[in-house]
Amino acid sequence: MMRLLLILSLFLSCKVAAYTQKTFVDQLLSSHEFFEKEMINLKIKQLEMEGDRANYENWSWDVGAEIGRIRKDKQKYDYTSSTDYARETDQEVGKISSDLSKKFFSNGSELNLSFDRSLPVKDEQMHDKNGYQKDKNTTEYLNDASISWTLPLLKNKSGIVDQKTYDLAVLDYEDERLVLAETQEDFIEDKVFEFIDWVNFKWQINAVSKAIGKLQNFGKKMTKSQSRDVKVLSRFIDKKKRLLLSLKSKLKAQTGLLSASIKQVDFSKNFPTLPDIFYINLIDDVARYSQLNVRDLKRIDLEIQKNARSIKTYKNAELADFDFTISASKDENKGNYSSYSKSKETNIEAKFVFSYPLTGDISNQVYLSKYELKKRQIELKYENKLKDVVSDINKLSTDIKQGLIQLKLTEQQVKKNEVDNELNLYFAGKGDVRFAIIEQEDYQELQLEKIDLLVDLYKNKLRYDSLIDRLLP
Fold first, then answer.
1. Is 227 exposed, middle or buried (0-12, 13-18, 19+ CB in 10 A)?
2. pLDDT of residue 85
3. Rounded CA gap, 374 and 397, in Å?
4. Nearest residue to 204 (alpha-carbon basis) of 245, 233, 146, 163
5. Among 30, 156, 206, 313, which residue has the least CB neighbours within 10 Å?
6. Crossing angle (nearest 10°) for helices 295-317 and 164-220
7. Is 15 helix (H, G, I), strand (E, B) or coil?
């Protein structure tokens, strides 16, 4: 029993595995370094897009400091007031300031917060009408804090102008994603053509090998009296063997191409295969399907969207600046000449600010006209591309339908020619060996013709799936 299991295990391990087109495509996508560059480009576009969004909504915080010295010498003439004045001032100034601002992506508004603190130290000589008094040392500080929120109501309403860069970055990212998919599909199309060629050579080798085997069996049944016919048959078998060697050589070269694409697969044990029964899902409403799925059309549609976004920006920029602002501020002051006093001041303000250049913005008008002209240009580009795509798809669809008709007729002929009429007549002593050979040759040619038709159908299916952008899994 153990010996039987061992033999069965060895048999299963040595068995050649079927290697499908889907497996081939999946491994290409997952392992080939060809896509690395395009993946990096996509990642760059994503970083730029996310960076634009983050930069727009980011808190901007500025901190400043100031250190200095002020020297004043003041003289007054014909002075009669009893109020003191500072004739000489020596002042050290120290100040720190902080400004914090943020824009809100949802509505284009902006929040600003600021805080300033100054701490001057003054050493002054005070004078009045009676002359010099005495030195006074005065220490002061001043705190200013404010907060304001501005909402644009016309120009840049909802952040239309400021958010243009981000919105275009989003569309650029989507375009780069389509470029990556198109690059992958073009690469896969080329490699699957190689895959189909490998299957083609293998099918032809199988057909020719079977024909040679049948002819050799034919020769074994011949008698000594038919030695002349044996020589005729041997020459024909040699011709077939030369064809077989040529096909095996092509298959070996094709195996090298596949191995270069996917190094981890041993194609001597994993034979590429395609179904013997051909099937394809042809699209009925080609124009509608193309508009929804074909990447070349999607990319032009992104151009239309980017152009429309620019028009939206420049149209909005034509409007007047009309903003609503609400703000609050608080000032604290401590110290003066006559007493050690404090003062506070609080302001709350709500206002509408309107401004508009009477001459307009010439540069903005030029750009608006430019993008409005481009709109029709891109629309024509889209319409022409759609016509070309629909025409190419319909042509391929017709070729596939005609190929299916030819394949069906050839299969019918193959079935009719399976009967060895001339061969049976020859062994019955009523036929000629050449007619029997011609019969076998015709049968093999029909089989090879069937293979050619089937291979052409698979290649047209590949072109069709690539054209309608459904080749990627």
1. exposed
2. 64
3. 34
4. 245
5. 30
6. 180
7. coil
Indicate where the chain has its CATH 1.20.1600.10 domain(s).
Answer: 16-46+169-306+372-467
For the domain made up of 16-46+169-306+372-467, give the CATH fold.
Outer membrane efflux proteins (OEP) (1.20.1600)
Measured CA to CA in angstroms, residue 44 lies from 34, 176, 178, 373, 385 at distances of 17, 10, 14, 31, 29
Q: Which residues contact 313 (CB under 8 A, 6 or more apart)?
A: 160, 161, 164
Give the integer Cα–Cα distance in Å for 152 and 137. 49
Side-chain-facing half-sphere of 338: CA atoms under 13 Å = 3
Tokens of 138: 């005065």
Residue 82's pLDDT is what?
Answer: 62
Tokens of 299: 């990319």
Closest among 334, 346, 353, 349 to 139, alpha carbons compared: 334
> Could you tell me the two tokens for 106?
């949802």
Residues 6+ positions from 308 with CB-CB distance below 8 Å = 375
Count the neighbouring beta carbons within 10 Å of the beta carbon of residue 471.
20
pTM attached to this predicted model: 0.80
Q: Are 451 and 165 in contact (CB under 8 A)?
A: no
Q: Measured on CA atoms in the order 24, 27, 33, 37, is the torsion positive or negative?
A: positive
CA distance 439 to 450: 17
Q: Dihedral, CA atoms, 411, 416, 422, 427, nearest 10 degrees?
A: 100
- Report which of 262, 251, 158 is spatially closest to residue 198, judged by C-alpha positions: 251
